[in-house]
């Protein structure tokens, strides 16, 4: 079996399992990198030396990248053997790198930092609102409104970056008070709309009515809540969200990234004494054990604070 053909079968199997497009793209990239590196065309022509030489070749990469590539290749060649695309258990030549996990607290935003972020965004809104008669500033004013809603959704739902940018208008149901997120693995997750998020949605909908007709038409004709500036049939690129995070980093003096809002959401849920099953469901984890493994430190720290209150010497 040609390596290239085997990769095609493997990717098709991942698509059938409904893995996310991001995961599949990463798998394909890693496998193509190995395929392009090796001089061999057939899966059965590969041997232990090929894998060792390849891992030496990529040894200067970050450890996280090396670990991922080993996992991807192990899974691929195990698939090949299981599906009889090769005669040898090639996956047994690829040992995963196991390292001791250090349980450290997730970085989260303080209440003061959250206020600082929204103050910065509202300041931008006021700044551009004064110049809306200019087409250029009209768009910047819209961006300031959009950015406030983006951050509100990230903060009050704990969703991932690609989930927020790809939101469709129909995903927001104000009657049922829910936002439906299209999450990892092609699954849907309904998250209740927090009161503060409801205010942000109302403010956004009210404010965009003051935009120029051209911008209003772009927003109205798109199915997406945050459409691309150049194509209303597509949502805004994730790169735009990353650029916003850079701006917020400069404004706050600390590194801000989209996943930081997810950790903040989960950590504040833990501090609010929500049960782990509810938190797991809210942040789209497939089971509570994943949530426990990620937020062990936060849960332990909170439990210690609660238990120490029971101590009394009189």
Are there runs of 5+ residues with pLDDT below 50, and where? none
Count of alpha/pi helices: 14
- CA radius of gyration is 24 Å
Distance between the termini: 77 Å
Helix content: 55-70%
Q: How large is the share of residues in beta strands? A: under 5%
Number of domains: 2
GO molecular function, one term: DNA binding
Domain Core-binding (CB): 1-81
Family: Belongs to the 'phage' integrase family.
Domain Tyr recombinase: 104-308
Describe what this molecule looks like in 3D:
This protein has helices spanning 3-16, 21-37, 48-57, 63-82, 111-129, 135-157, 161-165, 195-207, 213-221, 238-252, 258-271, 276-282, 288-294, 296-308, and strands spanning 172-173, 178-183, 187-192. The protein folds into two domains: 3-93, Tyrosine recombinase, N-terminal domain (DNA polymerase, domain 1, Orthogonal Bundle); 111-254, Orthogonal Bundle (hpI Integrase, Chain A), CATH 1.10.443.10. 59% of the residues lie in helices and 4% in strands. Strand 2 and strand 3 (187-192) form a beta hairpin. The protein has a three-stranded antiparallel sheet with strand order 1-2-3, with no helix packed on it. Helix 6 runs antiparallel to helix 8 (195-207). The model has no long low-confidence stretch (mean pLDDT 89). The chain has 14 helices and three strands. The chain has 314 residues and is mainly α. The relative contact order is 0.09. Residues 1-81 form the Core-binding (CB) domain. Site-specific tyrosine recombinase, which acts by catalyzing the cutting and rejoining of the recombining DNA molecules. It comes from Cellulosilyticum lentocellum (strain ATCC 49066 / DSM 5427 / NCIMB 11756 / RHM5) (Clostridium lentocellum).
